[in-house]
Amino acid sequence: MLNTWDSPVDIHPFGFVDNVEVMMSAADCIITKPGGLTVSEALAKNLPMILVDPIPGHEERNVEFLVNNGMAALVTKTFPLEEAIYQL
């Protein structure tokens, strides 16, 4: 989807990478699931997060904390990716 998305912002989708620190240092924000390790790494880099598809339990609690504290936006059916990008 992102490979063909017509947007005024420059988006580069990646799958799994071995150089997370380098990638996060170069990024303006990250679009990710709200798992503990990725969230911790993004917080350490002061990297804004756009969160997607949290699973019940810890990921939902991560979303609640991050969104309520202005550190992330959650993409949902009623709050699409483009709006989340502009919010950050």
TrEMBL record:
<protein>
    <submittedName>
        <fullName>CAZy families GT28 protein</fullName>
    </submittedName>
</protein>
<feature type="domain" description="Glycosyl transferase family 28 C-terminal">
    <location>
        <begin position="10"/>
        <end position="76"/>
    </location>
</feature>
<dbReference type="InterPro" id="IPR007235">
    <property type="entry name" value="Glyco_trans_28_C"/>
</dbReference>
<dbReference type="Pfam" id="PF04101">
    <property type="entry name" value="Glyco_tran_28_C"/>
</dbReference>
<dbReference type="GO" id="GO:0016758">
    <property type="term" value="F:hexosyltransferase activity"/>
</dbReference>
<dbReference type="InterPro" id="IPR050519">
    <property type="entry name" value="Glycosyltransf_28_UgtP"/>
</dbReference>
